Amino acid sequence: MKTLFKYIYVMKSIITLLIFAITFTSCDNNSTNKGALSSSAAEKVYVAPGEHDEFYAFMSGGFSGQLAVYGLPSGRLFKVIPVFSQDAEKAYGYNEETKPLLNTSFGFIPWDDAHHPDISQTNGELDGRYIFINGNNTPRIAKIDLSTFETTEIIEIPNSAGNHSSSYVTDNTEYVVAGTRFGIPIPQKDIAINKYKGNFKGTLSFIKVNPDDGAMDLKFQVLMPGFDYDKAHPGRGKSHGWFFFTTYNTEEANTLLEVNASQNDKDFIAAVNWKKIEEYVNNGGGSKMPTNYAHNVYDEHTHSATSTMKKEVIMVDPSEVPGAIYFLPTPKSPHGCDVDPTGEYIVGSGKLSANVTVHSFSKMLDAIENKKFSGDAYGIPILNFEDVLAGSVEQPGLGPLHTEFDNEGNAYTSFFISSEIVKWKLGTWEVLDRQPSYYSIGHLMIPGGNSQKPFGKYVVGMNKITKDRYLPTGPEVTQSAQLYDISGDKMELLLDFPTVGEPHYAAGIPADLVKPRSKKIFKLEENKHPYVAKSESETKVTRNGNIVHVYMTTIRSHFAPDNIEGVKVGDKVYFHITNLEQDYDVPHGVSMIGANTSELLIMPGQTETFLWEPKQVGVWPFYCTDFCSALHQEMQGYVRVSPAKSDIKLSWSLGEGF
Amino acid sequence: MKSFKILLAFGLCLSLFTACSKDNVEKTKKANTTENKEKSGQAFIKDDQSVPNVLQIAIGSKDHSTLVAAVQAAELENSLVNAGPLMVFAPTNEAFSKLPEGTVENLLKPENKDALANILKYHVTPGNYSKDFLKRFKKLGQANNKYVKVEVVDGEPLIGGARILGSVKAGNGIVHVIDKVLLPQ
């Protein structure tokens, strides 16, 4: 009886509360709607036909291995740049020219997991020259040239596994940095897995970028304890010269990490003084360690990539460079590691913590100077948490992941579990605003939001869960991005738009910093492809044993030659096709019946090659696969394939004998 | 029956709320308005195919009407339907009734929403472990940023002193029914 009475009482309270809530939320809702009506979200994202977006957004494709290019604020998709995965549409990784880009010490690998794009910087500001992105699975860093929007270099990272705390650039793109998520034996060896602790290691790789041509070179690696190096960001401005990495699994567990790597109350942010280590290496420091990794470079003039195996790397033992590395204790398996535009604050988001922890760079320097150490881990000094702590944002949400910054001293942190973006103030740590994400946001991006000069007009949230946001497409649905206007005090959700693959990080940049440099054609006279035919008079077919090379050209609206005879079953026929067009946006495509590869898509002035291995006698057609002109349908040709023992001579022609 | 009434009340709340929005906003302006966060979010997606999530399990249990009412009062529905994984220690109505007289009523007051949320989050672990597996832990890090102690007594895990009466696997984690409300220190 007493229970029942209590229950009725509780129910009464709840109903009262609900009625209160209804009244309250209704009024609140009305005012929100009025506010929204006065500022139209649709107008804010509308880019009229023929007009251009204000920003480029480069969103990693995650498990697609690619990098997608969108416009902001419209959310329109412009291009998917193939990086780590073969792309039949563009013949990337299928044609003979780009296959070497996907070479590794494990052989040809047609896929990777692309995570964190970062745009090159000069003086801590976006310069729009290159964008770098990491391959997580088979550790690699790729460079995309933003004049062609094509992948032009991929360097494999040896002594690494799970290349996750990558590929972030320093203030002047001196280095692109890559860190290991998975501890492994270095060098690799046959050892019991449960010998992990103390025997497995991680590495932090510093890839030098040539300021003139962007060429990458693995300058040195730092051999670290076998923690999981999760995310990273370089120092900015005052902290330029340092690099910060969040770590988890400082427990060094080798099984059931969801339990065993969550035992320590605090893990670390590793602060690495790379300038000090660079100086040490420049003076002959570090040991030369034998290794094996691929360095693949695409040459814009030969339109071809080459792959070189490198056999040595400079490995730096931190104990030999005292004062170069320190550990900053940071609560509960920190994930995001973000540095504010001034370089003073280092934000570590403990993904299992409800708080966001912020360290102070100047307090860190002071603690180092006064040797306020609480101990060491494998000889690397650990600073006192309280001595380096700038402050923390108390319980702003559940599951903090990543933080970006605007140009007014505000930070924006994504919260996975409570599914929201929280805006807070640097220095006072007060929460200023929160907006829900639909649903379960991972990374977020403000154009320039990890540089010294953010463009704080929009934030894009990249959500992990989509569910009912769009028309259903069976069990697999697109990943969803959301655009918020952050120009006012309160964030305003403007737009949902679908994305390619599973975006992790993204990088945004004002379009004006990229547009003027965008190439329209490749100049034919600069084409140095070994099998180029720069005019129809240079076309030919050659044979060496069973290897046949076809030097073919294409122009609106025919191939030269378009009749080829004397090819035999068992031949390996390489079609080298040069697009003679010198006109913007007139690519030609080509494919051959039964070719065990993709089409080619050849830009004006470019040469590309596909391999065809005829298996059957007959006359086999090829045709242009890109609608290039009014007479595109006439763009076709034939190859006659004779028996292997046939003595029909090789011949080729265009427009003869009709 | 209890949970039905609560659902009814909640449904009423939603319908009033929706009606109100419709009255005040012309349909044509819909594209211009931002989301209504009170009625949107994963908790409100229609899905009769997936395994019920931890929130749906709690709502469907007649022994957890007080907990559900508290979750709704603290507006934590959307967090409980997250991909998680989430392990919810769900005190029964009887467990709530063991609290000192007036405690629940007090916590349900709007001005105590934060205190209520703090207590509720103390019942949630990011993780998904069976009752047996929980014996491996000495403590669990809870969603309110505090730890709860795990002991093993007579071969059974005690979570903050609470016994696990039963466990239900959820689409996004697991619900362990417990006989005591966990109060953060």
Question: Can you put this structure into words, describing what you see?
Answer:
The complex is a heterodimer of chains A (658) and B (185). Chain A has 658 residues and is mainly beta. Chain A is built from seven helices and 46 strands. Chain A folds into two domains: 55-517, Methylamine Dehydrogenase, Chain H; 524-653, Immunoglobulin-like. In chain A, strands 6, 7, 8, 9, 10, 11, 12, 13, 14, 18 and 19 form an eleven-stranded mixed beta sheet that branches. Chain A has a six-stranded mixed beta sheet with strand order 42-41-44-45-39-46, with no helix packed on it. In chain A, strands 36, 37, 38, 40 and 43 form a five-stranded mixed beta sheet that branches. Chain B has 185 residues and is α+β, with helices and mostly antiparallel strands. Chain B has helices at residues 2-24, 54-59, 65-73, 77-80, 93-97, 103-107, 113-121; strands at residues 86-91, 124-126, 139-141, 147-153, 156-159, 162-170, 173-178. The radius of gyration of chain B is 18 Å and the shape is globular. Classes of the chains: A mainly beta (658), B alpha+beta (185).
Q: What is the C-alpha radius of gyration of chain B, as a whole number of Å?
A: 18 Å
Principal-axes shape call of chain B = globular
CATH domain class of the largest domain in chain A: Mainly Beta
Beta-strand segment tally of chain B: 7
What is the count of helical runs of chain B? Answer: 7
User: How many strands of chain A?
Assistant: 46
